[in-house]
Amino acid sequence: MDQIPIEIPKLNFGVTFEGTYGTQLVASMINASVYGASMTFVVKYFKNHSNSDTFVVKGVVILLVTLATLETLCASYQMYDNLVSKFGKKDSLDVITRSAMGKYVGVYLTAFVAQLFYATRIWTLTGHLTTHYRLLTYPVVILSFIQVVSGIAQIFFMGYVKTFLKLGYISYITFKLLVVQGGSTAACDVAITASFSLIFYNNRSGINSHTHSLLNKFILYAMNRAAATSLCALLSIFLFHYLSGTYSYMIPLLLNTHLYVISVVSVLTARGSMREDYSFHLSNMVVPSSNDNNTPVGINDIQLVDV
Fold first, then answer.
1. Average pLDDT for residues 138-160, to the nearest whole number?
2. What DSSP line would sit under the chain, residue for residue?
3. What is the pTM of this model?
């Protein structure tokens, strides 16, 4: 522990009760509220839309719910511990607890699982297209691993230094890791949206008006999803740097956990109404490379697979 370089960090705001525990409280309240909202999507999915899904897909949803619950419980417990159990005990408040690290585990792993889920959708969707379309999966997988590894590295340093004071001394390291984590998160979400949009846009030949409308809806939804999660990832970096001395960055960072849950479950839930309107599953679409006459086909010749 004596090897940690002592460098007093330069803060844009002085450390105050309002700037630290006040912003943590706001982040915790928003986090718990959005967690409750995300669980309504999960309940709706399991009640009305999960019967046709495989155990793997259901398992992904359960894993996302578990990680989001872990993050919410840890964040809420840390807030209670700071404001009630340890209030006024300066030395105790400086200790980095397991709950403090646990919430970050939930944040980074939730994003990782959701991003890999979309990577498998891209891989399945491009299964009967030309080979170069499958290359779209690789940037998503690589960026998702960069995101989670840089996030875990932050947690490692938290456990290594054991106190927030010493963590502040190496903030130049943790900030770089946060930039890598947030930047790769945003880039991965953009890559996911770009991949879906490119696949559908380049395979629209001969589609009917109903399918055309569906593809436009899906592309619009994908863009909105990427905008929300990417904005939160980048905003957390911005707030960490420009509002240093406060915990404002935790608001978008924790919020992103539940946006990923809502994103994945919304896609799975939306298939029900889309199937009623268009008679096929959205997330299980596979476009064959040719028909029986070995002629090229488009999105209008969609097959169904159960993955």
1. 95
2. -TTS---PPP-SS---HIIIIIHHHHHHHHHHHHHHHHHHHHHHHHHHT-TTS-HHHHHHHHHHHHHHHHHHHHHHHHHHIIIIISTT-HHHHHB--HHHHHHHHHHHHHHHHHHHHHHHHHHHHTTTS-HHHHTTHHHHHHHHHHHHHHHHHHHHHHHHH-BHHHHHHTHHHHHHHHHHHHHHHHHHHHHHHHHHHHHHHTT-TT--HHHHHHHHHHHHHHHHHHHHHHHHHHHHHHHHHHTBTB-TTHHHHHHHHHHHHHHHHHHHHHHHHHHHHHSS-STTEE--S--TTS----GGG-EE---
3. 0.82
